[in-house]
């Protein structure tokens, strides 16, 4: 690979920590498998191939690995601004660390006021009404967007409808001590990675006619690879930010176009000790006085903090309003619930802006069921695909991880 000297040395240094991955037959700018994207899918694939003694290089556009699994520590405690919930299972075991309690069922808050038991009964009725309307619409017009046909009228209906439409593909389960992003970075620590390297295009035309290498063109040089695993977000692939020669099949391009990204912003706000005055690990779901639906994880692990979660249009609006808008929005929302004293206790905030991030262009995606296999299908004989959209239960860490292992197995078979 024609690399500048420093990053190349960094690559060698990373490789030096990994036992016996160098295949002598390959030159410095040649690898067995180039992996495009250092999120969980790419790192899982890389780790499996390193264990199989393949010469691997992950090419990652950002200056860090982990993609949409990232832990921020600038508030003095770990905050996952991307993936935050993990259920016990194979991935949790692989990531290691202690699973911590997720949120307890908390309150529903409308315009700053928690619902009383009587109001909760009204909310439950509104919820039933909205569920019935959505079910009825889907039975008559399966592809219709409920937002285009159903108008919720009351705040109860608005909140219920927003929760129905924005149900994430993962369950709100448990947190991981130290953060999921930090654990994903540890999982990938021994995989050779070249950071700050955006992949522009790959040329596999030669490989299909018996040629040995696929050419991977990046912002920092060109690499020759015997096989390639594309582990980039669907938004990057579908948005034309990556070129393929030969071009991707029409079927794959249609599947990419049919897979939009959801929007989600996580805003962590830290306070002076004792604030907010609320029980630990409470989950508050609500709608602000301005009509914005939100969820809040209050006093996570009993910290003096709240993590506010916005989805859909609310997330897009806050992200578009600039870097400081998220903290201000969170503080206004929390002042409605806990009183304006909370403003004086404000210590700082961090927020994600996944929709404005050129390397994710959104939060997660759930393709139509029939598109998953098409997205995961190889392109020619030696270009494979991994990522959250390309396995069962798409849009989750579990899917990203499983797809990475599957793509690594495919690459291994192809290189035999
Ligand atoms: C706010 C939020 C909350 C979430 N919460 C949960 C949760 O609680 N539980 C759960 O299971 N899932 C959750 N998810 C989803 C989960 O984070 C993703 O499904 C998963 O991390 C995707 O992994 P991936 O490897 O497929 O993609 P990514 O993590 O996006 O990795 C792709 C990598 O490719 C890189 N890249 C992009 N373009 C290029 C290029 N041209 N060249 C080189 N590199 C490039 C990116 O920088 C990135 O590192 C959440 C996501 C978000 C955004």
Question: Quick gist of this model?
Answer:
This protein is an alpha/beta fold and 416 residues long.
How confident is the prediction overall: mean pLDDT?
92
Any idea what the shape is? globular
Give the termini separation: 23 Å
Helix/strand-derived category reads alpha/beta
> In terms of quaternary structure, what is this?
single chain
Look up the CATH topology of the largest domain: Polyamine Oxidase, Chain A, domain 2
Radius of gyration from the CA trace? 23 Å
Largest sheet: 8 strands, mixed
For the record, the count of structural domains works out to: 2
Q: In CATH, what is the class of the largest domain?
A: Alpha Beta
- Sheet-strand content, in percent, reads 15-25%
Q: At CATH's second level, what is the architecture of the largest domain? A: Alpha-Beta Complex
Which cofactor or ligand species appear? Answer: flavin-adenine dinucleotide
Give the tally of β-strands. 19
Number of helical segments?
15
Write up this protein:
There is one protein chain. 35% of the residues lie in helices and 21% in strands. It is built from 15 helices and 19 strands. Strands 1, 2, 9, 10, 11, 12, 13 and 19 form an eight-stranded mixed β-sheet that branches. A seven-stranded mixed β-sheet has the order 7-6-15-16-17-14-18. A two-stranded antiparallel ribbon has the order 3-4. Helix 2 (40-51) links the parallel strand 1 and strand 2 (56-59). The radius of gyration is 23 Å and the shape is globular. Bound molecules: flavin-adenine dinucleotide.
């Amino acid at each position: 690979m024609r690399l500048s000297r420093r990053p190349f040395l960094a690559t060698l240094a990373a490789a030096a920590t990994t036992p016996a991955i160098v295949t002598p037959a390959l030159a410095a700018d040649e690898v067995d498998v180039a992996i495009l994207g250092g999120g969980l899918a790419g790192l899982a694939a890389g780790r499996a191939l390193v264990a199989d003694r393949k010469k691997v290089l992950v090419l990652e556009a950002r200056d860090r690995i982990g993609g949409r699994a990232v832990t921020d520590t600038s508030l003095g405690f770990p905050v996952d601004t991307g993936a935050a919930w993990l259920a016990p299972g194979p991935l949790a075991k692989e990531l290691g660390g202690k699973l911590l309690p997720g949120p307890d069922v908390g309150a529903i808050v409308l315009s700053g006021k928690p619902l009383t038991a009587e109001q909760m009964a009204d909310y439950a009725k509104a919820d039933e009404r909205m569920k019935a309307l959505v079910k009825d619409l889907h039975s008559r017009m399966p592809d219709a967007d409920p937002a285009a046909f159903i108008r919720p009228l009351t705040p109860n209906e608005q909140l219920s409808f927003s929760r129905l439409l924005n149900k994430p593909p993962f369950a709100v389960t448990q947190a991981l001590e130290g953060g999921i992003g930090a654990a994903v970075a540890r999982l990938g620590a021994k995989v050779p990675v070249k950071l700050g390297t955006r992949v522009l295009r790959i040329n596999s035309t030669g490989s299909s006619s018996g040629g040995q290498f696929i050419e991977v063109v990046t912002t920092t040089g060109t690499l020759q690879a015997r096989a390639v695993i594309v582990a980039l977000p669907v938004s990057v692939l579908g948005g034309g930010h990556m070129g393929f020669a030969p071009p991707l099949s029409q079927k794959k391009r249609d599947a990419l176009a049919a897979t939009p990204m959801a929007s989600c912003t996580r805003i962590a706000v830290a306070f002076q000790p004792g604030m907010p005055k609320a029980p630990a690990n409470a989950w508050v779901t609500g709608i602000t006085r301005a009509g914005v639906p939100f969820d809040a994880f209050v006093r996570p692990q009993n910290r003096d903090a709240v993590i506010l979660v916005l989805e859909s249009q609310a997330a897009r609006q806050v992200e578009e309003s600039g870097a400081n808008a998220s903290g201000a929005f969170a503080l206004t929302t929390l002042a409605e619930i806990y009183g304006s004293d909370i403003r004086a206790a404000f210590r700082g905030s961090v927020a994600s802006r996944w929709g404005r991030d050129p390397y994710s262009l959104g939060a997660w995606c759930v393709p139509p069921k029939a598109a998953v296999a098409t997205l995961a299908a190889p392109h020619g004989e030696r270009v494979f695909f991994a990522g959250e959209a390309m396995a069962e239960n798409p849009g989750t860490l579990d899917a990203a991880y499983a797809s990475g292992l599957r793509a690594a197995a495919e690459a291994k078979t192809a290189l035999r």
